[in-house]
Amino acid sequence: MTTAHGHFAWHELGTTNPDAAAAFYPKITPWTTQPMDGMADYTLWMNGDEPVGGLMRAQGGGSGSGGSQWIPYVNIYDVDETVRNVKSWGGSVIVPPREIPSVGCWAVLADPQGAVIGVYEPADNAPSSYKAPKVGEFSWHELITSDYQAAFEFYRKLFPWENTGQHDMGAMGPYFMFGQKGAAYGGMFNGPAESPSPMWVSYVLVDDVHATAAKVADAGGKVVVEPHEVPGGDWIVRCRDAQGATFALQSSKASRA
């Protein structure tokens, strides 16, 4: 049994148009929406009976057009201690620690290259083990950056992440994977010069990337990188919603069999 420390725990969409986002994502995922008790301006993304993330109006400063952006949050033991140290490690604090009674404490940070990530200290900090994602859950986390090696040195100070392998992408260079105890949580790579500013991209597991990608434009979004197969046989596609927030979809090798 591992602890929750280092696991991706939450995914939050800050957007310029929450109503449009609430209508868009259920057309391409199994999600529904539900108001969060006690927070009139916050909506939960529900995958069946389980919340997988949240939706709120953007506060500005996101990497998407107009500030719309998905932010992944990682469980840690102590938000306050992390925030005290993050500047000495080369990062910056975007939102200082805030607490939600009976829920936990959170903060939003930027790494030395500028990618935004959240940290979350649950109120109970109960032990948990890593579980393989199900359809409708977030399945992979990818950092597109200007210096993945420097970025990983920063993140390994925040979280107990380890090198879980890498593969060669040819002219695009290496794809570096990270995780814990042999379980890969995601990957990092240096984006091309024309890439937008460094950012985290979160993947949602769907039944069929090809069928889902076809729905993105009809729902008002855009396919940025067409569906393609990755090492291991899974399929992925990168997209943007109508407000400019980047997200990605993944389907397993088994779903294409």
Short key terms for the protein model shown above:
257 residues, globular, 2,3-Dihydroxybiphenyl 1,2-Dioxygenase, domain 1, mainly beta, 46% strand, 8-stranded mixed β-sheet
Structural notes for this entry:
By secondary structure, the protein is mainly beta. The chain has a single domain, classed as 2,3-Dihydroxybiphenyl 1,2-Dioxygenase, domain 1 (Roll), CATH 3.10.180. It is 14% helix and 46% strand. It has four helices and 16 strands. The chain has helices at residues 18-24, 79-86, 148-158, 209-218; strands spanning 8-15, 32-36, 39-47, 50-57, 69-75, 92-100, 104-110, 116-122, 138-145, 162-168, 174-180, 183-190, 199-205, 222-229, 235-240, 246-251. The strands form two sheets. Strands 2-3-4-1-5-8-7-6 form an eight-stranded mixed beta sheet. An eight-stranded mixed beta sheet has the order 10-11-12-9-13-16-15-14, covered by helices on one side. Strand 14 (222-229) and strand 15 (235-240) form a beta hairpin. It is globular and about 45 Å long. The two termini are 33 Å apart. Residues 61-66 have low confidence and may be disordered.
List the helices and strands and how they pair.
Layout: E1 8-15, H1 18-24, E2 32-36, E3 39-47, E4 50-57, E5 69-75, H2 79-86, E6 92-100, E7 104-110, E8 116-122, E9 138-145, H3 148-158, E10 162-168, E11 174-180, E12 183-190, E13 199-205, H4 209-218, E14 222-229, E15 235-240, E16 246-251
